[in-house]
Each structure stands twice: as structure tokens, then as C-alpha cells.
Amino acid sequence: MVQGPVLYLILLLGVGFIVLATTKFKLHPFLSLLLAAFGVGITAGVPLPEVTKAVNEGFGGLMSYIGIVIVAGTVIGKILEKSGAALRMAEVVLKTVGEKRPQLAMSLIGAIVSIPVFCDSAYVILSSLRKSLAHRTNVSSASMSIALATGLYATHTLVPPTPGPIAAAGNLGASNYLGTVIIIGLLVAIPTTLAGYFWATKVAASTSTQEETNLNAPQANLPEHFGPLPSTAKAFTPIFLPIVLIGLGSVISYMQWQNEFSEVLLFIGSPVVALLIGVLASFALFPKWNEETLTGWVGEGLKDSAIILLLTGAGGAFGAVIKATPISETIQGMASGGSLPGAFILFAPFLIAAALKTAQGSSTAAIVITSALVAPTLAQAGVDGAVPLALVVMAIGAGAMAVSHVNDSYFWVVTQFSGIRVADAYRAHTMATLLQGITAFGCTLLLWFLLV
């Protein structure tokens, strides 16, 4: 098999193919990943039967323990969106923070809602609340828009059960440490959200929007089609119940408690069971138990999860092929020789994710692809255990924030629903996402030095 610098060149060409195929030739990332997996394996001299075996096992193996988690998280998000529970959560945060700090309220609302709901959908369903609050408090519409957009963006790339971080944890072998990933994700997301809030108040506030051309026009109220919004407890339970259960499971596992009660808590605290319990809890949000909700709403969540499952599986296949090459031995030699000391291991996933995000637009795709690429190198570099792996997930998520621009669907959701002109959006939105990415990575480095 090929070894040494030539093998690195093959891997670099494989990554370059993924970027070029998805951006210039508009090939779907799923096919790009699979073609790259076969191409890298064959070119690196891996025996053909082993290439096929690695692709199959990498795809199926990852789905065996992360697939249901992704599906369940996506279904919860869809039910929160369709039932109006996301709006109820927004109202609660708004009342808690107060209308004197509207941008902070929007940032916090976004950060909470985007944990289970994709930021694109969340921005759409919260847009009317943003408009109403901006009009009522006489605050710049652009400032409110960027505060909401950056709040949504922070947790979207950092905190499970959002599919991207879950998929990264699975690729990196940290699926058993989701509780730790959630806790560290929240720690990193707080300053990242505040960085977006700072940009919204200090920079975006001076940006004009088309919405402000008629400030006296009546603003839209909450969407009437939701009907009566669910109670606060019902709205928050599907999010926080799984997080609490996973957290309890992580604590018991860490403390190594061994009794029948601990076994039960470990069972319900496993990510698959905890997320399924969250799905069942979300059924309380149904206005009616009928075909529209039990089949329709759940079916929409299943459809939304399909693309994430395919990308995650293809990423697992790519990672398995990389593991089948001699790259592990090369990395092991570098690690033992001190070439990859300490926190330096975080820079590579951050830069790869940032390059992929900037090139092809999708944060989730950047997270999945990067985690698949770096997974084979971590064990050889001595990166193992809950906290180190969680911090690598954070580094990847930080890179997947920088930057959101015209090839990102979220960029267009924000600009079209807020009335920000494209030229102004580069300054208000794109630069805000760059600041968030840098902030998230800086916090990740700090936590590495403090905790590892």
C-alpha cells in the first residue's frame, strides 16, 4: 500500500474532490463522499475486497448506534415546530429577559429553540415574533435579525440533539459520551451566542433593512394557524427531558455505580432511549391524535432526517476507508514523535470544517465530513475519553460556523425574511458568523488547556 507523503497527497486530493464536486459541479455530498471513499481506497492501494468491506461496514456500523438518535432528534424538532411549542418557548424567554433587552432576548430564544429545531426552520417560525418585538421596542430590525440568527446558529453547530453534533460524536466514537458533549457544547455556546449578540448590537444595528421603510405598518402577530399555544411545561419537556436523562446516565457511568436502579437509569439515559422518550413526550403537543399528527408530522420529521442519515453513513464509510490505509501508522509515528502535541490536534478539524463550510455552504455536511476525516487520526494522537473527544466535536462545530455566505441556504433565509440587502448581509451576517466561529474555537482551546 501507498505510504508517507504520497498517502497524504491522496487524502488531500480526496478532500479536494469532495469540495470541488459539491461546489462547482453541484454533486450531492452523499455521492461525493462515497466516490471519494472508493477513490482514496483504490488509489492508496487497499485491496479491492477490503475497500468494499470498509465502505459497507463504515456506513452500516455508524447507523447501528447513531441512526435512531438522529431520527428521533429530527422528529422532536418537527413536532416542536408544527405545534407552536417553539413559539411558546420564545415567549417564555422574552418574558424572562424583558423587553428592555430585546436583542438579548432574541439571541437566547434562538439558542434554545435551535437545539432541536434546524436553524432555517426556526428562523422562519420566529420571524413574526422578531418583527413584532422590533416594532414594539423601536429597535433596529437588522439588529434583531442578526441577534436571532446568531443565537440559532450557535447551538445548531455545537449542542446535541442537533443532528450535526450528534453525527460528529458518532463518527469520533463519542456516542457514549453525549452527556459530556451536551454540557461542553452549552459551555461553548454561551460565549458564542454572546459574540453574535455583541455584533448585532454594535455593528448590525447600523444596517438598514427593507422592513424599516414602513415602520408604521401593522406588524404580523404570532401565526394564527397554530391555535392555542401549548403550555410552557409541555413545550420545554421534549428538549430538556432527554438532556437530563442523558446527563444522569453520563454521571452514573462516570461514577461507576452498580445496582439495579443504576442499571435502569443507564438504560433510559442511553441516547437512543432518551431521545425516544423525548419523542413520546412531544406527542403531548399534538392538538389532536389523528393521522395528520401521528403520521403526517412524524413523517415530515422522518423525511427531514433522511439526508442527515445518508450523509452520516457516507461519512462513516469514508472514515472506514481511511482507517484501512496505513495513515494510522503514519499518524502514530507523528504522535509518538511529538509532532501533534496537546491542543494542536484541534486546529486541523477546525480548519478543515471551516474550509468545507465556506466552500459548500452546509454546516451539517461540513461537520459530518470533517469528523469522518479526522476520526482515524485521534486515537493515534492520544485523543481519547469523554472530554477530549467532546472538545474535538466543538472544534469541528466552530469551523462549521465560519462562514455563512451566498452558498448557504441559511444566509438566504436570514436575508429574505429580514429584508437585509445582500451587500449589507456580508457585513451584518457573514462577519457575525466568522466572529462566532473564532469565539467558539477560542473557548474550545481554553477548555482544552483547563480540562485535558
Count of discrete structural domains = 1
Instruction: List low-confidence stretches.
Output: 214-223
Query: What is the CA-atom radius of gyration, in angstroms?
Result: 22 Å
Number of strand segments: 0
Instruction: State the end-to-end distance.
Output: 35 Å
Number of helices: 19
Q: Residue share in helices?
A: over 70%
Mean pLDDT: 83
Oligomer: single chain
What letter string, H or E per element, gives the SSE order?
HHHHHHHHHHHHHHHHHHH
- Biggest beta sheet summary: none
Q: What is the approximate shape?
A: globular
- SS strand fraction: under 5%
Q: Structural class of the helix and strand makeup?
A: mainly alpha
Pfam families: GntP_permease
Keywords: Membrane, Transmembrane, Transmembrane helix
InterPro entries: Glcn_transporter
Protein name: GntP family permease
